[in-house]
Amino acid sequence: MINIRKLEAELWESADLLRQGSKLTSNQYCMPVLALLFLRYAYSRYKLVEAEILKDRPSRGGRVMPVEPSDFEAKSALYLPREAQFDFLVNLPDNITSAGLRNKDGQPVNSLGEAVNNAMQLVEEQSEQLTGVLPKTYTIFADDLLRELLRIFNNKTIDEIGGDIIGRIYEYFLSKFAKAVASDDGVFFTPKSLVKMLVNVLEPEQGVMFDPACGSGGMFVQTGDFVNAAGMNANTQMTFFGQEKVEYNAQLCLMNMAVHGLNGRIVSGDEANSFYHDAFNLAGKCDYVIANPPFNVDKVKSESAFNAGRLPFGLPGVNAKTKEVGNANYLWINYFYAYLNERGRAGFVMASSATDSSNKDRDIREQLVKTGHVDVMVSVGNNFFYTLSLPCSLWFFDKAKREENRDKVLFIDARKYYTVVDRTLNEWTEWQLLNLQAIVHLYRGETDKYQALLEKYNQTISEAVNSISEESLSFFPLLDSETAGQFNSSLTWLNSPWNNYDELSRNLNGQIEQTKSCVRLAEERLKKRELKPMRLAGDKFCKVLEEILTIIEEHEWLTGKFGKGEYNDIAGLCKIATLAEIEEKNYSLTPGAYVGVPEAEDDGVDFHERMNEIHAELAKLHEEANVLMKGILNDWEKLK
């Protein structure tokens, strides 16, 4: 089985080593590298579609009719002229001039950089959506470096995996560049788990989706995945619109969408400044609004913003002297609401401070709450962004709430519910995202969706347990015969039915310990050259078991709170609050103000008894420290 994460990491490491060996900054390197990934994707798609076309291709005079651009257009695929095909570029000779190439304008091609520039121009001619988007700066690369990059992305494993693997690799590179391009503050990339949470709660099906601060297009890509996973076609069900002030980010967005096979209208530059322009005239017309706007923007011209409209709740605080909006968070909140049609939903990321900011912000929030359209509020902890450690909140509006929730808001405090990726980054795993979504489903009365999740847990865990024997085959043959016998005996529990997840967890934990014990035994009996592969296989097998345990833990987390599907307010996690309760708290929308704190678990330790023990322990340590100090002073006196 091919490890996709390993492939992503290997490709990134190889490509980034080349950057480090060059004189290019991450910012210079980012766009050209991502465009090469796009070209690799376009070529993979081209070959697949070409094979489909040639299956039933008529022939004349014994020759199969050549494929044409119109054939690809009929299959919603991009046609690539020969000079724009990835394998053509990879197989060019070291001495480019010897190939006698000419670009689209008839000029001689004298370097690999010029050949790639020409390929990008030829691709743009085939797609109106990509016109002027792809970089043509490849002459900044030395031919040797560019040739090595092409070789790296020509990895045959990509084609073996198939599916949307290029899209995943593109997103992975984008996230890595977000960390590397520190000067950009990661504004062009919203971490995937936050985007997925927004999409999971919005549950888009069909209609117009608008992102007025679309960055690199992650919201559209995840929406496409969500709609396609439901058995529909995102390009026929959804119409995507985006505004992105920074042209560089808009180019990333269009490439990102193209890599994922999505169409959309994206505008950039001054006319895409959402504070002053509704570029597509979408106010009141959107089925879904989704965004991660820049937080706490200041110096927005209040008169221009007011004249641009989309302010159903009025302007936030304005500096009387400068005539500027001091903090634009509530401009964005106004816009997100104003763009919705009569049944529209919105989901967006916002600075945590906005949930209970005061003065004019508070007045706007009161008006907003009284509409009854605030649906869900989620607090997110630190370290969810690649370059920022600040906490944030997710806001959701729904103009078509079910009647039972019309005057209610679901608050979720998820600040302590996450998975640590590394020292500076946290995320929600797929199962954690599904659990948080399940709380929303119960609040909306959609118990069938909750039941479907429980079935998914049971099926996934059962399938994973059934695959353990097969997974063990990568470890078993690397052991000596005696240890292999012991290891095989340790798996006998798999032949007996398990009655509940507690029992299964005990078996899995026991198997992990047994496996580690077998590794230690084998280390004493195997030859030195045999040790490393045996240890790696043992670690890999234990990881498989640990992943099953993690899924069980998430299942128990969910069912321990909501059983078979009945919503409950859970202290420290979630609460459904009425508008009256929100009014009592001065229209704060901070989840922590409503959910309270979880009840402390009784650990069985008597507090006073433990304090006495600690006190006695400290006194003893203090005495020992005095004895040691006297000894040191005596030794020092003798040395004088």
Automatic annotation (TrEMBL):
<protein>
    <recommendedName>
        <fullName>site-specific DNA-methyltransferase (adenine-specific)</fullName>
        <ecNumber>2.1.1.72</ecNumber>
    </recommendedName>
</protein>
<keyword id="KW-0808">Transferase</keyword>
<dbReference type="InterPro" id="IPR022749">
    <property type="entry name" value="D12N6_MeTrfase_N"/>
</dbReference>
<dbReference type="GO" id="GO:0009007">
    <property type="term" value="F:site-specific DNA-methyltransferase (adenine-specific) activity"/>
</dbReference>
<dbReference type="Pfam" id="PF02384">
    <property type="entry name" value="N6_Mtase"/>
</dbReference>
<dbReference type="InterPro" id="IPR029063">
    <property type="entry name" value="SAM-dependent_MTases_sf"/>
</dbReference>
<keyword id="KW-0949">S-adenosyl-L-methionine</keyword>
<feature type="domain" description="DNA methylase adenine-specific">
    <location>
        <begin position="164"/>
        <end position="448"/>
    </location>
</feature>
<dbReference type="InterPro" id="IPR002052">
    <property type="entry name" value="DNA_methylase_N6_adenine_CS"/>
</dbReference>
<dbReference type="GO" id="GO:0003677">
    <property type="term" value="F:DNA binding"/>
</dbReference>
<keyword id="KW-0489">Methyltransferase</keyword>
<feature type="domain" description="N6 adenine-specific DNA methyltransferase N-terminal">
    <location>
        <begin position="7"/>
        <end position="149"/>
    </location>
</feature>
<comment type="similarity">
    <text>Belongs to the N(4)/N(6)-methyltransferase family.</text>
</comment>
<dbReference type="GO" id="GO:0008170">
    <property type="term" value="F:N-methyltransferase activity"/>
</dbReference>
<dbReference type="InterPro" id="IPR038333">
    <property type="entry name" value="T1MK-like_N_sf"/>
</dbReference>
<keyword id="KW-0680">Restriction system</keyword>
<dbReference type="InterPro" id="IPR052916">
    <property type="entry name" value="Type-I_RE_MTase_Subunit"/>
</dbReference>
<dbReference type="GO" id="GO:0009307">
    <property type="term" value="P:DNA restriction-modification system"/>
</dbReference>
<dbReference type="InterPro" id="IPR003356">
    <property type="entry name" value="DNA_methylase_A-5"/>
</dbReference>
<dbReference type="GO" id="GO:0032259">
    <property type="term" value="P:methylation"/>
</dbReference>
<dbReference type="Pfam" id="PF12161">
    <property type="entry name" value="HsdM_N"/>
</dbReference>
